[in-house]
Amino acid sequence: MRIFVGDRLGIIKCVSIENTSVSFVNLKPNRNKEIIEMDFIDQNETQLIAGSANGIVDIYDLNKFEITKSINTNIDSVFSFKYLKSSNRVIVCNKKGDVKIQSLEEQIVEEEEEEKEKEKNFQEYKANTPIATFSVDRAQQTLYSCGGKDNLIKVWDINTGKNVFSCQNLPLDDLGLRIPIWDRSHDWKHNSDNTFVVGTSYGGIRIFDTRVKKAPVKSRDILEFPVNKVTNSIDENYTFIGDTTGRTFKVDLRKIQSVNSYRESVGSIRGMSEHHSGDYLGICGLDRFLIVYDLKLVKSMMKVYLKTQMNCCLFSKQGFNTKVETEKKNKKKNQVTNDSESDDEVSGSSSSAEENSSSEQSTSSSSGDEDDSSENSEGSSDDIDRYWNSLGVINDEESDLVSDESDEQKKGEKVTQKKKRRRKKK
Amino acid sequence: MSKNNNNTYRKRKNWTKKNQKKEEEVVKEEKKKQKILRRKKRQKEREELGEKAPPKLVQITQEMTRLPDLTTVVPNDPEVLFSEKTDEMSEYFDKKKKPKICFTTTGNTKVRSPDLIKDLIQCFGNSTFFARRNYKIPEIVEYCNNRKYTDIMIISECNKKINGLIHIHLPIGPTAHYKLSSVVTRSQMKHVPKKFVQYRPELIFKNFSTRLGHTVTRMLNSLMPHNPQYKGRRLLVFHNQRDFVFFRHYRYKFESKEKTSLSEIGPQFTLKLRTVQLGTWDTNHGEYIWYYRSKMGSSRLKWFL
């Protein structure tokens, strides 16, 4: 598995989770060229597109780590950036309210036909008040929505430029006062044209539906600090929320209550992304750390120190999860085999499997940042040899990557050999 | 009968307390004697062996067993060097700007804070004091930007004790929020000269090893002018130990080629970091770079500066 991370200095880095190794995609830092968002072009993930604060859009080739194309959209101080897959176009937005749509294809321009082609390529719209959020529809990518301080969210059409939907505020308070407005982040749901979730900077969450009514369907104030980032998960009923002091929560949308909390980061959160299987979450922010969480165990898998402040992150879909699945299967075998070996250990636990598993989890929780696999995989040696040899047949058939997985299998065998030596010395 | 029993009970209590103290003192004296005997043995062995003697024993302190930190700065790191060249404080280090400081207080307090502010104005140069008359902090930032100030220091007070310090770096720069304690002003010290010539002093920072520590030292560096005058023999020291920062103000003197002596001028106080913010001071809608929570990695050997 791989994650791509974009910096505030203009550098893109690629982190692999199994090795915890860092490699650079871009090598020339530039303070004016903050990276705002990234996205893949193909399904095979050979090209990466990145938008920066200058107004320049770059396309990278991931096999060679080079720039193949760079396009200049003439807008200063870009605030947000999105890539439209169906029509191969790019939307760029400013804080004042200028929106511009531009196509990525090259065209030969003649002197007589310049005006006609300008109408095809460029489209400009203007919003009236300053913008704090901006996002694009997820299902068919024909709508865009924006909002800010004292400015409710409005939904526009891309091709025609007309207003489709505008929100309405909640009714008056118990004292008869108006409720203040500051929409700070919002996100559309997967495969839907209708609903989106909004986070305000007073700590509240609202859900809107375009088919039902203009006022919010549900709303509630949860947090003390403002909500900086909202991402919807693949499940329809859950979202992830990021704070400005470093806390993240998993929220149930039917009642608007927090179910889990992740509390290891220290600075404000600016980027979140979820794996396509729904098992892992990656978080990056202003405190220069990248943390990956395991969602079923609610624990941190990996914590890497990257030396600059980060803006956005992306999970890649490629990569067969060899190490993680084999460790889960090893746990089940170890719970059965540990009954015979419990008397030999110094800790002297009883023979039931539940207490062994609980003691292993307690030791793993005390040691914080290390992987769970290294402590739990202490089964008998003969069973592990049979299991690794049986796995070698399965993995060669199903994998598509060339060299990464063969190296991982060799590392797995080396780990077992070391532990054989340890047990003999005892 | 009951009265006699009470008297004997009291006598036995006092008798046991006194004897307990005597026994404890006897045990302490024995331990001291044995410690002295062990030290004399080691000295004898070292004199006999001469050069082949084993090295001296070292006392194990908490600083030696500190948990290793991931964010310690390795010298000559290209990413760290580039990010510090294009920082918010880089204009001061390129010798393009001179510092100009503005002092205020929170509320209209008059009990203890004017004494500290007089000493600080004499310590740092080129600064003025303004009274706080129900202005809000974002308004103060606007007015100071119009008159080309570079720093704002706000001192807070509660219950006749000085509490905290807010340091805002202008025009966009980061803000730091400290907790002040154990403040001693010049009027409370003895043998302190009334006036001294304000040559530009020298700055010393000790024991800041992590990335957070580097940003804090850069912010504190921008308070004083860049090129010191060694003729004045003045020193400002910021010493960090276990996340507490100690501030002292000395003047040194060379008595001979081998000996120097320090004499203390100026106030002394201790600081502890609470928060570091990205923009100017905004508690409701601002973004934090570092936020301190008391249950954050609860172990005695984990420090952040």
How does this model look, in words?
Chain B: Residues 99-282 form the Brix domain. Chain B: Residues 9-20, 33-43 have a biased composition (Basic residues). Chain B: Residues 21-32, 44-53 have a biased composition (Basic and acidic residues). Chain B: This is Ribosome production factor 1. The complex is a heterodimer of chains A (426) and B (305). Chain A folds into two domains: 2-106 and 120-323, Methylamine Dehydrogenase, Chain H (7 Propeller); 395-426. Helices cover 20% and strands 38% of the residues of chain A. In chain A, helix 5 (381-398) runs antiparallel to helix 6. Chain A has six helices and 28 strands. In chain B, strands 1, 2, 3, 4, 5, 6, 7, 8, 9, 10 and 11 form an eleven-stranded mixed beta sheet that branches. The model of chain B has no long low-confidence stretch (mean pLDDT 88). In chain B, strand 1 (101-105), helix 4 and strand 2 (127-129) form a beta-alpha-beta unit. With 305 residues, chain B is of the alpha+beta class. Chain B has six helices and eleven strands. The A-B interface holds A 9, 11, 29, 31, 182, 201, 226, 228, 244-246, 266-268, 286-288, 303, 305, 307-308 and B 70-71, 77, 79-80, 82-83, 86, 211, 278, 284-291, 296.
